[in-house]
Amino acid sequence: MDEPDEVAEFARLFSGFLERMQNAPAENARESVRERLLAHLGVDPEELPVVAATFSSFDLPNVQLAVEAWFDDFEVIGLAGSDRNHYSFSELLEVSAHRRYGIGSVDYQRVSIAVDQEMDCVAFGFYLGRQGDDRYVALLRAANPQYGRSGVQLEVIATSKEAGERFLGELPALILQHNVFRGQVVSFEGHEFGAGVGPFRLHARPGISRDDVVLADGVLERVEREVIGIAEHREVLLEAGQHLRRGVLLYGPPGTGKTHTVRYLLSRLPEFTVVLLAGTSIGYISEACGLARMLQPALVVLEDCDLVAEARDHGHGGGPLLFQVLNEMDGLTEEADVAFLLTTNRADLLEPALSQRPGRVDLAVEIPLPDAPGRARLLSLYGPALELGPEVVDEVVAMTEGTTASFAKELVRRAVLLGAENNSRPGDAELRAAAEDLLSARDTLTRRLLGATDPVPYSVPPEATPGLAPRSY
């Protein structure tokens, strides 16, 4: 009998609750973002035109620093509410007029700006700034391929259209001035949610001295003159009407020291911005060259370039990526202090236009297998802790003809391991045993993987190294 009365009472109380919520004091609700913008600008933000610009996804810290450098003073506010990533600035203003969105916390994204340094960047936030008599609101958003935004987006309204256009017009120079990647070693990565360039990977610059590079006489000098010499004498060359842009191709068998030579050049050019491209990342050649042009002097390294630039008659060349690489190399102005450094194990496969035509590659240098003096130097370089007699060094050098620098490095490592297993300081016996082991028939594939030619397997006499039988690994 009492149930209808209980239902009616519940309805009455619930209706009262809804009415109180609807009439709640404004101070208990979030401040409207539209009202905050109105207070800052002094005019209705919906009446002002929006000017916008898009930047590379990796430029988020540079855009933020440029924006903050433009303003005399500013504050950053966030936006509370869902689905905001789907709306443009104009649409957000329209939606905010219905108080759907209020002031919230700023979204930040932690970005690496050096090997051991990170920066908290604004991933979604409104800059309320002043510059002279002009007032601005700039919405900065990080790249977000998940929402179809592949680049950093900046949308600006100002108290005059001219002020907004002037702001965006000055921004590229400010980005260049405050660029955090100048003089760093970077490589590109793809986006997790689709095509386009993702975040940078930053690398520590190698610290390799000239004594650490073992090449045949005259080889390193040729490379240094083309890459380093032009950088050191850029002013003289420009005054004489000579171009700075250059391309160097290092070719030779795997394991001979091409990458090691590249690392040495990076050590000698500490002021250069370096962009490393290898494998599928060579597809980002346009972005790499754009960064190199902006942050020159710069070095663009294309490792194993034969993977994307094979000659057309081998069935894989002639594709868009090959032409893109060639066009980017040709597209730099002659005064651009940008060096291209290419490496390949198969120079015979390269497109002639890439490897022979001046302006694309000016110098092709073979990095050959080390000769006998080179192999002796490699043993000294990689094995300073080994106690070796000159007779054993000569013997091992003779045994290892046709091997690579990588082979010598592994040879020394095995000698040290043999000494550790026998609780002794590695020396002549360990080096000889390691050489016999690596040159035996059972290590044929290992030698190939280390880049060595495949000589007749070394025959190990039983009495060769008493007490130290060769081992397999």
Summed up, what is this model?
Keywords: ATP-binding, Hydrolase, Nucleotide-binding, Protease. By secondary structure, the chain is an alpha/beta fold. 37% of the residues lie in helices and 20% in strands.
Describe the fold and architecture.
This protein is an alpha/beta fold and 473 residues long. It has 3 domains: 33-177, no CATH class; 201-366, Rossmann fold (3-Layer(aba) Sandwich); 372-449, Helicase, Ruva Protein, domain 3 (Orthogonal Bundle), CATH 1.10.8.60. It is built from 16 helices and 16 strands. Strands 1, 2, 3, 4, 5, 6 and 7 form a 7-stranded antiparallel beta sheet that branches. A 7-stranded mixed beta sheet has the order 11-8-13-14-15-12-16, with helices on both faces. Keywords: ATP-binding, Hydrolase, Nucleotide-binding, Protease.
Please write out the topology.
Elements: H1 3-22, H2 33-41, E1 51-55, H3 60-70, E2 73-80, H4 89-96, E3 102-104, E4 107-114, E5 117-131, E6 134-141, E7 152-158, H5 161-177, E8 185-187, E9 190-191, E10 194-197, E11 201-203, H6 219-232, H7 234-239, E12 246-251, H8 258-268, E13 273-278, H9 285-294, E14 298-303, H10 320-331, E15 338-344, H11 352-355, E16 363-366, H12 372-382, H13 390-399, H14 405-421, H15 428-438, H16 444-449
Parallel strand pairs: 8-13, 12-15, 12-16, 13-14, 14-15
Antiparallel strand pairs: 1-7, 2-3, 2-5, 4-5, 5-6, 6-7, 8-11, 9-10
Helix pairs in contact: 3-5, 12-13, 12-14, 13-15, 14-15
Strand content: 15-25%
Supply the number of helical segments. Answer: 16
CA-based gyration radius? 32 Å
Q: Helix content range of the residues, please?
A: 25-40%
Distance between the termini: 91 Å
CATH class of the largest domain: Alpha Beta
Q: Please, what is the average pLDDT?
A: 83
